[in-house]
C-alpha cells in the first residue's frame, strides 16, 4: 500500500497502516519531515532564548528585561492602531535577523506608569535601550518616510544608526554602529 500526503487514515485498518510503514519511500519522507520539524522547533527556541519578539504585559517585566539586556528595542503599541500593526510586522521580521538585540512589544494600556515616565504621546513609539538606559526613539513613521509602505530595510537601517542592532555587511561580518555609549 502506497501512502500519499492526501491519504485519509480514518477508514484504514491498523494492519494496512503497519503495511504502509514498511514502505521505504514513505518512511524516508516521514523521517525527513520529522527532522525538519525538529530543526524548525530548535531554531524557534534559540530565537526566543537569544532575542525574540515577545509581548510583555507588566511594567516590571519590561524593566527587568531592559535592565538585564545590553540592547533592547521596545515597541509601545495599541492593538487597535493600524500603524502599530505595521510596525509590529517589521519588528518581528527584524527580531529574527538580529538575535543579539532583545525585541519587546508592550500594550500601552498595560503600562501606564512607563507611558507617563517616558512621555509617550504618539504611537507607534519604539524606544531603544542600551544597558538599561533609554537612548533614542522612533515616533510614528516620521523617520521612515512618512508612509505606511516603508521597507523593513529602512527600519533596520534606522535602528542600526541608533545603535540598537548590529548589522551584517556583504561578507557576512558583523558591523556595529558608531554609537558606543
Automatic annotation (TrEMBL):
Entry's InterPro entries?
Thioredoxin-like_sf, Thioredoxin_domain
Q: Which residues form the Thioredoxin domain?
A: 66-143
Q: Where is this region: Disordered?
A: 1-21
- Please give the superkingdom of this protein's source: Eukaryota
Name of the featured protein: Thioredoxin domain-containing protein
Species lineage, top-down? Eukaryota, Fungi, Dikarya, Basidiomycota, Wallemiomycotina
